[in-house]
Amino acid sequence: MLKEVTATRYITPLREGGSLPGLVEADDFGTYVLKFSGAGQGRKTLVAEVVCGELARRLGLRVPRLVTVELDAELGLGEPDQEVQSLLRSSGGTNLGMDFLSGALGFDPLAFSVTPEEAGRIVWFDALVNNVDRSWRNPNLLMWRGELWLVDHGATMIWHHNWPGAEASAARPYDASDHALAPFAPDVAAAAAELAPRVTGELLADVTAQIPDAWLTDEPGFDTPDDLRRAYARSLLARAAVIHDRIQGIE
Ligand SMILES: Nc1ncnc2c1ncn2[C@@H]1O[C@H](COP(=O)(O)OP(=O)(O)OP(=O)(O)O)[C@@H](O)[C@H]1O
Ligand SMILES: [Mg+2]
């Protein structure tokens, strides 16, 4: 289970971010980036954040710690901004929080360098989860205390929008030509050799167990949250075995 906190104060919207993530303070005195369950992108975005974030972390990649944030919709009552107010009002209940990396800089491929080993691990991981949101235009990579951190895994696993076609979709190739780390000679062969064997059924059961039940109910074709958890695990297990040969667009 992810740690559970309760929001005590809405601080401010983040300047960037299409889904209007916000900064909140919680009852443990932590400051979190909050991704709202009521955002237009829907709760599957939050499921993707948990599955990919917790999987990446278990594979040794750096991802800010994730928590669930209980939000009282009334927290929005005093918000002057209409858009923020309606987001808060529609997000009562369980939301996703992430440790706020204070002072982090957006990754700039011209200002920072990344080793082929690290670039390879990240490109391979993004191929595994089919992340289409790590382009050089919008890398969703942060430099914090001299190290590279991964954020924003909401636009991954396209197959969870159409489970009947998931098996076929999970086998599709990944085009890495636009990837922010494509210029760093990513060694995906080494990454696949190291990481693919670690993506086991057991690891994926642990990862998917972190998804709150509240985001897994009422999915057509699935009777229980655990059935849906197993579908996420199956799709990633199948993809881990084959994706290395299907990464396109890099040397
Ligand atoms: N944990 C964090 N610590 C510090 N800054 C963060 C953190 N998470 C996100 N940010 C900053 O906020 C921006 C928006 O966050 P994020 O990309 O997760 O939101 P989004 O709405 O999914 O964005 P978009 O769809 O526009 O890419 C990031 O690009 C980054 O600059
Ligand atoms: Mg983003």
Structure description:
It is a single chain. 39% of the residues are buried. α1 packs across α6 and α6 crosses α7. The protein folds into 2 domains: 97 residues, no CATH class; 144 residues. It has a 5-stranded mixed barrel. Strands 6-7-8 form a 3-stranded antiparallel sheet, with no helix packed on it. A hairpin with an 8-residue loop joins β1 and β2. 30% of the residues lie in helices and 19% in strands. The mean pLDDT is 95. The termini are far apart. It is α+β, with helices and mostly antiparallel strands and 251 residues long. The longest helix has 18 residues. Bound molecules: adenosine-5'-triphosphate and magnesium ion. The site of adenosine-5'-triphosphate has 21 residues, from β5.
Helix content, binned percent: 25-40%
Bound molecules: adenosine-5'-triphosphate, magnesium ion
Low-confidence residue ranges: none
- Distance from first to last alpha carbon: 40 Å
Global morphology: globular
Tell me the total number of β-strands: 10
Kindly estimate the percentage of residues that lie in beta strands according to DSSP.
Answer: 15-25%
**Helical segment tally?**
7
Largest sheet: 5 strands, mixed, barrel
Number of domains: 2
Structural class: alpha+beta
Strand order of the largest sheet: 1-2-3-5-4
Q: List SSEs in N-to-C order.
A: EEEHEHEEHEEHEHHHE
